[in-house]
Write the structure tokens for this entry.
Amino acid sequence: MGAALPLAFSEGKATYPLTGVILKPALFGVGFLYIGCGGTDRVIREALKNGYEITELDISSEMIKRAKALHPDVRFIHDDFISWETTETFDLIIAWDSTFHAPEQNQAEVITKMCRLLNSDGVLLFTGGAYAGYASGTMEGVFFEYGSIGYRGYLDVIERMNCKIILLEEDQFPSGHLVVMCQKQ
């Protein structure tokens, strides 16, 4: 992408300085799908500042309620991404710490769908598990199951969907937290 990476993506975490590059409408248009409203407010604030038309989708009505309180002018959809049907396409899709909540057997389907929803030259940024399999844990006192097809599985799907890898990195070693960014060709 060639531009400097000036901003931290997520406050309080050792993550990537990506928002300064991917949230510039001059580079990628304005249609932005954010999957999983429970993510960082910083991304949405930056996108709004840069004129993005944002759609946030989440299966949790509580997460949508929280996000609406912060950004009442954003379009929200309460649905499961796997079963959600749309004819819309987007210039940017971010699914930070959300796709791995889908079961392992649905991971390829989720990544395929996100790639399919990208416009030509659109960018997808998501996180997943670096290693294939199943795990479980709690967040805010709620039990969650996590699925992953691992970095090799993600690479296979992304290549099959005619997308080019821009970034593939395990950013919180040794936790298995994988950051993937790709662009549709």
Observations:
- The mean pLDDT is 84.
- The longest strand covers residues 118-129.
- The chain has one domain: 19-98+108-184.
- The chain has six helices and nine strands.
